[in-house]
Sequence to fold (212 residues):
Amino acid sequence: MLAALLDLVLPRTCCGCDLTGFLLCPSCRGLLDAEPLGRVCPTPCPEGLPRVVAFSSYDGEVKRLLLAHKEKGQLGLTRPLGWALAAAVRRADLGAVVLCPVPSSRAAVRQRGHDHAMRLARAAARHLGVPAERLLCPARAVADQAGLTTRERAANLAGALRATGTPHLPVVVVDDVMTTGATLVEAVRALAAQGHPVAGAAVVAATKRRVR
Ligand SMILES: [Zn+2]
Fold:
């Protein structure tokens, strides 16, 4: 209701490029309809990283759209970003799978007011006609990953997640962004410890300097 009222009094600008009159302009919308980038691997590639497919590199308009969705609660972007994530999952060509989002800490979800990765997972799952399940949850608090080296990130995240649920379909771990891959490695470790078969991972965007 408040958002609808604000739309009436504030000029709306595109979250990707600031063009007036749109939340997502046709040009930025077109970027999310493009062909997925394909398989990506960070440098260095962490041991235990599953096959990861990214829709895009993490820069430009796509980066701005992801940040607007995650940090500014622009939920009108959930569906188009979810479609981009679905395109990455489809490119991975893994058959019948269940999508499992990387969980955020409770504090982060509270601060943002929503669970961005779960929203994207659900939107992608609807588009693909597969289930999305919250199979992972934080096992303990972790330090902020920003500013940590690859090795420090891996140490910070070791044992940070735990998995629940009964193993059935192969799991595709999904997230908005991959940076070093350390979070995905920890997600795969936790899922495997619970007996879940992990088919791979898909992200909307991967940090560009790490794309091969
Ligand atoms: Zn735009």
In short: The chain has a mean pLDDT of 91.
